[in-house]
Amino acid sequence: MTYHPSPEYDVVGVGFGPSNLALAIALDDCTRQQRVSCRSLFVERQPHFKWHGGMLLPGSSMQISFLKDLVSLRDPTSPFTFINYLHKSGRLLDFTNCKTFYPSRIEFNDYLRWAAGQFSSLVEYGETVVAVEPVGSGQSVVALRVSTRTEDGAERVHIARNLVVAVGGVPHVPAGFRAIAGDPRVVHTSAYLESPITAALNGEAPRIAVVGGGQSAAEVTLDLSERFPNAHVDLIFRGHALKPSDSSPFVNEIFNPEYTDYFHSREESQRGAIIRSFRNTNYAVVDPELLDQLYRMTYQQRVSGTRKLALHPRSEIVGAEAGPEGIALELLNKDEDVRHRATYDAIVLATGYERSPFPAFLDPISRYVEGSGLDRDYRVQTSPAFRPRVYLQGCSETSHGLSDTLLSVLPMRAQEIMASLVATSAKQRGPEQDPQLVERVYS
């Protein structure tokens, strides 16, 4: 059989968003500071680095301090800090004059792109992982065959001693919309700015529905009102009212790295209770300043007698149908048990994301997994015969806490995974590489 061997890597990272970017920085720091290297490769399905491109709205700001960047809380002297990015960009003094800890989302995305650009030689963009399969030696699994597909349909294979998965969430589309999800008049916030939705809003007074009661829903509602001053926007959500997010200092301590230790050490029932008690930090809540903007807008409409923005609380969408006149929604007021029907030119789904605890491409190695939880260092628990280590980033909220899907713990999580990888890879390599490994991978 003819094959074209690729290099063998100590670790292959699946996805190259902020989580694996932070890991790349941690591995680079280890090489520079401790002279210990870990041969790594990252594969990313997007054609270039992009962080929430669909929601880089003009005027939108970060909700966490710039000090919670990719590395500062772990090593403020690192060349990859947000402050060094400002310095290299010639804007450090100008940013200081802004008197804020919260840069715009557009600027923070530019910071992430700047950092990612320094690792371009380690990243294969435009590659989607389709399967991760075991490579055996005797009775043991000693490596992983990572199969990918490029944008032009070509198939590639990468050999990995270890794997770090950080693929992010998948846009959640409510069941009532799945039958019409392909309609260009229906868009999830993840693709809001990149969608052709504006083509559906070329009428004199378009009608738009925003579905959801969280931060993204509020941001899109304001953005639509500014982009289309004559539009009629309905904000539809199930709660009794739009609620403020709790970012007070004592509550914010749940996002500190040491809280992860506490959370992981609790019993499963205790973890669930903790998550429920702090849901108002992250789920179905809106930044208080943004709430004030929305309220002032609705109040001014009362003053002027015009009503272009309407809020529909306690409302559940029980039917959605696409037709030539628009998208018809059937709404149920849960309190009054009253239904009404409305037709819209466009629908924006601000309905969040789904995160799989074990992505489908890992199915070929699932028989080696023992237990449903992750070790403290984010490693999947596997049988003794399975030597590779598989780490999961951003999908372990139930075992590591609410901060797992956020930016707050990126530096320390990357440090923990890096330390585990470096200690493991030296043992895995041994004095010599198995000369038959590559042939087995391709056979």
Automatic annotation (TrEMBL):
Instruction: Please list the cofactors this protein needs.
Output: FAD
Q: Which GO terms describe its biological process?
A: intracellular iron ion homeostasis
Q: Which family does it belong to?
A: Belongs to the lysine N(6)-hydroxylase/L-ornithine N(5)-oxygenase family.
Organism expressing this protein natively: Bradyrhizobium oligotrophicum S58
Q: Any keyword Kinase?
A: no
List the Pfam families hit by this protein, alphabetically: Lys_Orn_oxgnase
Establish whether keyword NADP is in the entry.
yes
Upper lineage: Bacteria, Pseudomonadati, Pseudomonadota, Alphaproteobacteria, Hyphomicrobiales
Q: Could you tell me one molecular function GO term of this UniProt entry?
A: monooxygenase activity
Write out the entry's keywords from A to Z. Answer: FAD, Flavoprotein, Monooxygenase, NADP, Oxidoreductase
- Pathway(s) it belongs to: Siderophore biosynthesis
Which superkingdom? Answer: Bacteria
> In this entry, which stretches build a coiled coil?
none
Q: Which InterPro entries does the record cross-reference, listed alphabetically? A: FAD/NAD-bd_sf, Lys/Orn_oxygenase
Q: What is this protein called?
A: L-ornithine 5-monooxygenase
